[in-house]
Amino acid sequence: MQIKGLIFNIQKYSIHDGPGIRTLVFVKGCPLRCLWCCNPEGQTPQPEIMYYRNLCVSCGMCTKVCPRGASVFRDNSVVYNRELCTSCGACVRVCPTGARKLVGKYVTVDEVLSEVLKDMKFYVRSGGGLTVGGGEPLTQHEFVKELLRRAKEYAIHTAVETSLYAGPHIVKEVLRHTDYLFVDIKHVDPTKHLELTGVSNELILSNIRYVLSESLVDVSSFVIRIPIIPSVNDDYGSLRGIAEFIRSLKHEVSVELLPYHELGKHKYEALGREYALSNPIWKVFIPSKEYLESISKFLTSLGVKLVST
Ligand code: SF4
Ligand code: SF4
């Protein structure tokens, strides 16, 4: 029987997630809870319902088909109770406006690969391939490893976007079939990292050293990404700490900045969750071009090799 994985999206024609034109597979489930995460629907390791209230016309179709009483009419409007919902998807199939969306689907490696193979001609022409991201791909390492291994059988270039928050043996196994690697450094201070992401960074930083010291991917195919979240993780002291860590790697690693944006903010409400950075205590803002240029200049002055992928 084929191994199955839980994914929440397959995106075609990406040009920002590795060389050339790529197909992105988003694996569902992540041990981190970054405050700025723009794919919160990828965090939990099971299918779930997104409910966009602004699209709901209170037609009541969902209340008629829900076998659990999780969608009911109250005071002429629909009340959705996430606690009772089993994510069966019945309401999604009847909702006329797209107010309900089921995120997360169990799929076989063959099913994903057949989608990936459809764009083979683009990969060949552009030097592109398959990128697995998420969520966190290493949470489903058996599935991801098999997907990457099978892609390599077709000579497809493979990339992984990961936090490296996993045991080194898992990292090693997955990277056996990976040509190109993206890893985030969100903060170098373990306590601050815990506050911002829900986990300490010790495992992540030691895995970065491990990958490079064991040459698990070629250093020319290794990119460290720094999310720039203004007033949250980008004070000069924090950036200097990241630069010092990168310099200590003793390899000329490429570094890319990921500027903060709020494109995923609306998803939190649809998932029944709060967007933590909405709280004014964080004082976060979307960085301007000039703001990012000054950060780039600062990091470059500290010997960091910045690139844009
Ligand atoms: S997914 Fe199923 S259980 Fe959940 S609200 Fe819709 S119909 Fe009810
Ligand atoms: S079926 Fe869709 S539009 Fe109709 S009440 Fe339910 S969520 Fe709203």
Describe the protein in words:
A hairpin with a 7-residue loop joins strand 1 (4-14) and strand 2 (22-27). This protein folds into 2 domains: 4-45 and 104-306, Aldolase class I (TIM Barrel), CATH 3.20.20.70; 48-102, Alpha-Beta Plaits, CATH 3.30.70.20. The longest helix is centred in the middle third of the chain and has 13 residues, at 141-153. The chain is built from 11 helices and 13 strands. The protein is globular and about 65 Å long. Helix 5 (141-153) packs parallel to helix 6. The chain has a 9-stranded mixed sheet with strand order 7-1-2-8-9-10-11-12-13. A two-stranded antiparallel ribbon has the order 3-6. The model has no long low-confidence stretch (mean pLDDT 97). It has helices spanning 61-65, 90-94, 109-117, 120-126, 141-153, 168-175, 190-197, 202-213, 236-248, 265-270, 289-301, and strands at 4-14, 22-27, 48-51, 71-74, 77-80, 100-103, 105-108, 129-134, 157-162, 180-184, 222-228, 254-259, 305-306. With 309 residues, the protein is α/β, with parallel strands linked by helices. The structure holds iron/sulfur cluster (2 copies). The site of one iron/sulfur cluster (SF4) has 14 residues, from helix 1 and helix 2. One iron/sulfur cluster is lined by residues 49, 62, 65-66, 68, 70-71, 85-91.
